[in-house]
Structures are given as C-alpha cells and as structure tokens.
Design brief:
CATH architecture: Alpha-Beta Complex
Radius of gyration: 17 Å
Structural class: alpha+beta
Number of helices: 5
Helix content: 10-25%
CATH topology: Fumarylacetoacetate hydrolase, domain 2
Number of domains: 1
Shape: globular
Order of helices and strands: EEEHEEEEEEHHEEHEEHEEEE
Largest sheet: 6 strands, mixed
CATH superfamily: Fumarylacetoacetase-like, C-terminal domain
Strand content: 25-35%
Distance between the termini: 35 Å
Length: 227
C-alpha cells in the first residue's frame, strides 16, 4: 500500500466487444439532444448544448442489477449512445472530432426525476438527480474501426419487453462530432472519457423488478434489472 491511507480503488472498466478493457476516466452527459425529448420535458429546442457529469464509478457493466436508489419515488430510464474517447484533445475542430473516438456503446442515463425537478425549480445542481451510485449501466464498447461512426439507426428501449423509447441517431440535434468539439472548448478530453449523447422521447418511471433493455443499431445493447 505504500503511503496510501487505504488501498486505492480499482479502476472502472468497460469490456470491449473484441477483447480488452476500456478504463474510464470521466463521464460527461449531453443534456437535451433530441427535439421530441426536449419538448416532452417542456424545454426550448433552440438552446445550445450543455453538459453535466456522472462519476466514473456510476458505471455498471455486464448486465448487473441496479439497486433502486434512495430518496426518490420517480426513477426514470434514458437510453443513450455512449461515445468512448481514445485520443486526448482540447479545442477540437468538428472535422477532426471523430478521430478522437475509440468506439461506441449503448448506455442508460438513469435519473431521479423528482429530484431533478426540484433542482431545476430551485436553480440548483443536478448531481443528486443524475450522479448517484450505479446510475450509468453501459454495454460493451464496439471499436469504431469495426463499426464506423454511426450517425443514423434505431435507438430503442423496452421495459419488461414493452417498448417505451424509439428514436433514430439521425434525430440528434448535435452530432457526435459537434458535441465533442463543443465540450472540448471547456475541458481537455482524455483517452478514457465517455460522453453520453442524450435520449429520445419516451422516458418513464421504473420500479423494483423491472427489466430494462436498450438497443442501438450497429452499436449493441445494454440491460439491467432494478433490484
């Protein structure tokens, strides 16, 4: 242990579809990136993109069960395309942004919607609504060299086999390249960073025992059970 007060925490990793592990550094999330979802949440589609963060250890992999979090009566699902950054960069040009992408995965931005609503009303941060334990179930990462850079295709989510969300990656207001370029104006992106790129319409509540399954064409799936 050396001079550490306690043993350092193990790195957070996500399996790569063709072997190996992706070590997670930071997790950024794009807020409101599909027009229909913006409308269902009562917001303005003309607003520029904004970002919030989840801690790396919010990531849940391998289809593991997600504990129902405390202090909420309205846990909601959001299916999202996850971008895995494989090359460092700051002030990245849109035309160069995809060169910084290692691969893609399907993920869930789980949200304590009641706490988010209270935070919005009070003008407070969203962390307790978004950045709680196990709030980011993520499937395996598909390398871009194998699947390319998906900019269209179905993105769906079902609960207990009943479809709730359906959209298309082509419906994103801000493309992956634009999101990377914009975010990199504020922070230096590093290999190991993840970007969750927003959810289509149809978000809704889940409870204990519910099976959540998400799928993104060419990218893969994500699954968890609320325990």
């Amino acid at each position: 242990m050396g001079d550490f007060l306690f043993a350092p925490h193990a790195p957070v990793t996500i399996p790569i579809a063709r072997g190996g592990l992706f070590a997670v550094r930071r997790l950024y999330c794009v807020g409101r990136n599909y027009a229909e979802h913006i409308v269902e949440m009562g917001n303005d589609t003309r607003d520029p993109p904004f970002f919030f963060a989840k801690p790396a250890d919010a990531v849940l992999v391998g289809g593991a069960a997600m504990p129902y979090p405390p202090q909420t009566a309205d846990l909601q699902h959001e299916i999202e395309l996850v971008v895995a950054i494989g090359k460092d960069g700051a002030d990245i040009a849109v035309g160069d942004a995809l060169n910084h992408v290692y691969g893609y995965a399907a993920g869930l931005d789980m949200t304590r919607r009641d706490l988010q609503a209270l935070a919005k009303k009070a003008g407070r941060p969203w962390e307790m609504a978004k950045a709680f334990d196990c709030s980011a179930p993520i499937g395996t990462i598909e390398p871009a060299e194998a699947i390319g850079h998906p900019d269209s295709g179905a993105i769906t989510l079902s609960v207990n086999g009943v479809e709730r969300q359906r959209g298309d990656l082509a419906d994103q207001i801000w493309s992956v390249g634009e999101a990377i370029a914009y975010l990199s104006q504020f922070v230096t992106l590093k290999a190991g960073d993840l970007i969750m790129t927003g959810t289509p319409a149809g978000v809704g509540a889940v409870g204990r025992g519910d099976v959540i399954e998400g799928s993104i064409a060419r990218v893969g799936t994500v699954r968890t059970v609320i325990s």
